[in-house]
Amino acid sequence: MKLEFGNFYVKDVQFGSETKYENGTLTINKEEALAVVREDEHITKADLVIAKPGDNTRIVPVKEAIEPRHRVGGGTIFPGVTEELMQAGNGTTHCLKGCSVLVVGQHWGGFQDGLIDMSGEGAKYTYFSQLQNICLVADTDEEFEKREQQKKNHALRWAGMRLAEYLGKAVADLQPEEVERFELDPVTKRAPEVQALPSVVYVMQLQSQMEESGYNDLVYGWDTNHMVPTFMHPNELMDGAIISGSFMPCSSKWSTYDMQNNPTMKRLYQEHGKTINFLGVILSNLNVALEQKQRSAMFVAQIAKSLGADGAIVAEEGYGNPDADFIACIVELEKAGVKTVGLTNECTGRDGGSQPLVALDELANAIVSCGNVSELIELPPMETVIGELQALARDGLSGGWDNDPILGPSVREDGSIIMENNAMFCGDRVLGWSTKTMVEY
Amino acid sequence: MKKAILYLNQFFGQVGGEDIADYAPEIREGLVGPALELNKQLAGEAEVTHTIICGDNFMGSNQEEAINTILGFLEGKEFDIFFAGPAFRAGRYGSACGNICKAVKEKFNVPVITSMNDENPGVEMFKKEMYIFEGGASAAAMRKDVKAMAYFGKKILLGEELLSAKEEGYYPRGERHQIWLNPPVAASDRAVDMLINKLTGKNYITELPIPKSDLVPIAPAIKDLRKATIAFATTGGIVPVGNPDRIQSASATKWGKYDISETSDLVQGEYMTIHAGFDPAAANADSDVIVPLDALRAYEKEGKIGKIHQYFYSTVGTGTTQGEAARMGKEIAAELLSAGVDAVIMTST
Lengths: 441, 349
Description:
The complex is a heterodimer of chains A (441) and B (349).
Chain A: E1 2-9, E2 12-15, E3 20-22, E4 25-28, H1 30-37, E5 43-51, E6 57-66, E7 69-71, E8 91-97, E9 99-105, E10 114-117, E11 132-140, H2 154-168, E12 178-183, H3 192-195, E13 199-206, E14 218-219, E15 222-223, E16 230-232, H4 234-238, E17 242-243, H5 256-260, H6 263-271, E18 277-285, H7 290-307, E19 311-316, H8 321-335, E20 339-346, E21 367-372, E22 376-379, E23 384-387, H9 391-394, E24 417-420, E25 436-440
Parallel strand pairs in A: 1-8, 2-4, 6-23, 9-11, 13-18, 13-19, 19-20, 20-21
Antiparallel strand pairs in A: 1-12, 3-4, 5-11, 6-9, 6-10, 7-8, 14-15, 14-17, 16-18, 22-24
Chain B: E1 2-9, E2 26-29, H1 34-41, E3 46-54, H2 56-61, H3 63-74, E4 81-84, H4 91-108, E5 112-116, H5 121-126, E6 131-134, H6 142-158, H7 165-168, E7 176-180, H8 187-199, E8 229-234, E9 238-240, E10 256-259, E11 271-273, H9 281-285, H10 293-302, E12 307-314, H11 322-338, E13 343-347
Parallel strand pairs in B: 1-3, 1-4, 4-5, 5-6, 8-12, 8-13
Antiparallel strand pairs in B: 2-3, 9-11, 10-12
Helix pairs in contact in B: 1-6, 3-4
């Protein structure tokens, strides 16, 4: 499988009469873009707002982030999700780097939504403060979940994907500024000097805890709750085969943007042929029933062993209940003789004194830790709010609260906030961006 | 100038050796023994105003009396920070430093700092409750150990950023927090480098050392269920509709108890779940799926169990820290014990 990313580095975003990309500037015809958003009749209100690094701006409730892209030669950028199924990971995809489509609720947030500050102390908590963000601020008629804490956010998330695809068309016929190539020979057809290197698989445990469809991560449109672990090519996964779900407390969540730009996968590619033989990805899940956890761990270890893996990196999208899957998977791999490194965040509580993961095992002896979901964060007011600040307190965001006997409400009258890291939009960056770690005091 | 007070044993307090280890607590104005060095090291930020001296055996055999006497000495005295030791490898002295620091911290809410060698049993006993600096084996390390305590004490008094246990030199207190790496290194690079090191037999350091398991032994079985009082407890968030105790839907810090003495079935419209970490449809339609009161009432009628306890206890497990969970568990357990409950059916989700 051979994939080329043709990259265009967006340094500025503005509105104008024509949607186009020129000299690092992405110009958007707002009405035309919003027409694409409104293709779904469930979208009742929609607007586009631009948020740039350094802006005195707070964005909440953020539901999803997507990198605008265009599949050269035809076909959707999210096969099996926005349009018909096709193979991803082969050919050329044009990418608008340095920018993202942020899907923001005009009013209503939920358990899985997060917050982004574009400047100040809060900016360091999320990756997206450094991007040119095209915020789709919208509302829907999905009355059934309006006041539910858990929301599928279907209309909004799909509108975001359509918008990303629409914006990607701006670079359909342009010459990329940079080309990234990703190619792996079939596992058994590699050069002897590559085969001689330690063989490594990357295990992604995607969020799949909900039994009802509509909340979990999708692989080619398929609910990851209904899959057993399978072997996949990294190119597929960077090229739109997986999309983020709408369930996990936000700092632990992997947005679709994160999946498209997976830093761990890129680093494994860099090492391929030099220090390791990168076999590919075992895609796994995080179902809640114990038997399903054991089944997935067993499948992962078997696939890794059959492929001849010497090493594995396991990354977990979530915390709490999914820690059991994370540890079980590492234990099964280690027992199968596959040396394993885990990538996760922790839940040690506001005082830092709680057990870091729900499940622990001494075989999990190599872990990279990306943060504490329950760290308390207090931030001053921002001049501009995109979305609705009250959502953080009112709508049950996993790191917000309407009232606390000691701390008061998450959102104060002056617009300052107090929240748990849990509500930072995709803040713990377990797919690899995190420059946070955990230390003991 | 901020004020500090130092605790010493009879030996370092220059009263005498083992023969007068029964020496009762005493407080002196000014500096005795190591207080001189501490005062020098604190210079500019704080002065040591008093030295407390107590025999190790007196503290060991009359702990409550010793502590109360010393707390009495401190009553009404102005001080911003409290030091004890260094205790080096002396076990009784280490334990005394730990006990008095703990009591002073609780009563006066001031920072407390001590120092012990890693073989001093006081380290294991008290490291989670205070800053204990890693000290030398004997008094030869006096100057170095006092300097470490003073340096950190000054940082606290100045309100400076306190770094991790490893960076500062105190024993880890079991509190894990996130920090940003400086210089920044992405987790992807840390993970791949760690894996390459692990694969090639090189050293690597895990960022999450697996703590020792804290296992609770399984309780002995109930001999005669027909005479037993059984209670329900759940982390599944089952509450009367309206959530009267306003238990949080995630990261809970509250629990509630609800009278079910007149109830035999948790029906829709009267009970619901407020738990945000799972699909609530089934639990809202019939809360017995999480707190199976209907089934246990049937057992009660059939005489299979003695009776069901008057209340069921509920909180939410999702995102709830182990620390909060343990506290709530202890509070609920105390109620159950005093009510004579023999067994609990504890349900999670």
